[in-house]
Write a structure and sequence with these properties.
The structure holds two protein chains of two kinds. By secondary structure, chain A is mainly β. Chain A contains two helices and six strands. Chain B has one domain: Lipocalin, CATH 2.40.128.20. Chain B has a nine-stranded mixed barrel with strand order 1-2-3-4-5-6-7-8-9. Chain B has a two-stranded antiparallel ribbon with strand order 10-11. In chain B, a hairpin with a 2-residue loop joins strand 2 and strand 3.
Chain lengths: ~130, ~240
Amino acid sequence: MRRWARVAVCAIGTAIVAAPAIAHHSFAMFDTTRKVTLAGTVTMFEWTNPHAYIELDVPDEKGLVKHWSIELGSPSILMQGGWKFKDLKYGDKVTAIVSPLKNGQAGALLSTITMPDGRVLGNGPLPAGGGRQ
Amino acid sequence: MKIALRAACVLLSGAFVQAQAPAPPDLTGVWSPSNGARVADTALRPPPTPLVLKPAYAAPYEARRKVEAEAAARGEPIAGGAVACVPYGMPRMMAVALYPIEILPTSGQITIVTEAFSEVRRIYLNKPQPPIDDVPPGYYGHSVGRWEGDTLVVDTVGIKTSVPAYQNMPHSDRMRITERIRLAAADLLHDQITIDDPVVLEKPVTYTLVYRRMPGYEMVEFVCDNNREFIDDKGGTHLKLRDR
């Protein structure tokens, strides 16, 4: 087992990025060319399939709160990136960088997030060699 | 004496033949298509052959792809079945995004379970394949397999025509999928897939999925019970938002 693990780690270390398999579905409803920062308070964290969601209250500079629904990958994909199902709860303060919906509604796709404990997590496996590969 | 010698020779040659036929490789375990696709050695990632549809199918296929591209640019991508939590079926289930597959050989059967949508297909070993018309159409069809040396050769028929195939190509009920599954290197699995459909394709198309073993990985549950994406009456995908 240990030997296989070494082989796997070596291969990942020398990996190059290639289009692997078919995607679960298109993410074209999000504008992935844009990145918006949302600093706010978690109202709900749904650890569900086919996607996890963070519901976030985001106050503007005048204190007016706008609510956002943020889509993440599935639990499997998130776990490959180091997420755990209890990572977020009601009231947690986070800062998320997201790609908003193209239609202008308050929905978005997560890019990265700074967690209450300061960890920065992505929306899937960490770069080469990281995460639960 | 002569008879005894002959008998000994027969026994020895039998043993020799047995020694020449090594046990098939053990494919048991969890395999990642995405880690496999990132293998640096291009010799271990054979390129696909071109997908060539017959003219009657090529034009609508290209037209559909154009409509899909336009819808995606608008931010309303045309939904595939997965958006409605419909499973992929064969052959697309064999490589979905970052989701691994688990291969479970048992006596006379090899079972493959995918993490995405928890799909299951069963490959019956050393059994004859019934005629296509005797197989009820489904997402996984009917698969039989046999070992040819170190390669598991799998024949699958009976995929519903509503289940999209490679690159979302259309297919008829005559589609036949042949897989040649083997260890291409230590912990590296190849599934060379050939799709033949004399109704839709000018010639068979072949592509190879590459998997890397995931030692110790425990498959994650995937039950599609919180689908917040929905499909409008034009087939576009949208996200259900919440107020709080």
